[in-house]
Amino acid sequence: MVDEFAALLRAYQERHHLSSNRLAVEIGVDPSYVIRIARAERPPPHRHLVLAMARGLHLSPFERNGFLLAAGHAPSSICQLGTWPPVLQAVCEVLISVELTVADQDAFSRIVCEIAERWLLAGRVDLRGRCGSIAERSSLPGATRSRP
Predict the structure, then answer these.
(1) Average pLDDT, stretch 6-31?
(2) Is 72 left (phi over 0), alpha (psi -120 to 50) or beta?
């Protein structure tokens, strides 16, 4: 988890050309603390600091959820639900199933995203960029998905 979060933090810093010193100033912590986190010398910070980092890095809600997860915290979307509904459990069970091929999981993901798009703001929210294939998601910084 430490290495995964550090890699993701560095990738977002590079993408936004934001130094650890600048990010530290924006979130109100000592620069050496952010530097040590980015070097994987310190564990990921508490949730409120991860959220502050996400704001400082201008992360999208999708990226912020992944950033929180990499730090060992529940994604904001799950916290907003306030519960763990059976539908989420079912989706997770399909996505982690070792019996399904990556192609089957991708097909399932596409179907779920198409259904979700239908209800989200009458189609004004495009999930396609967020619903890439399993292979695309595992190539993102911090992704650690492996298949047997």
Answers:
(1) 95
(2) left
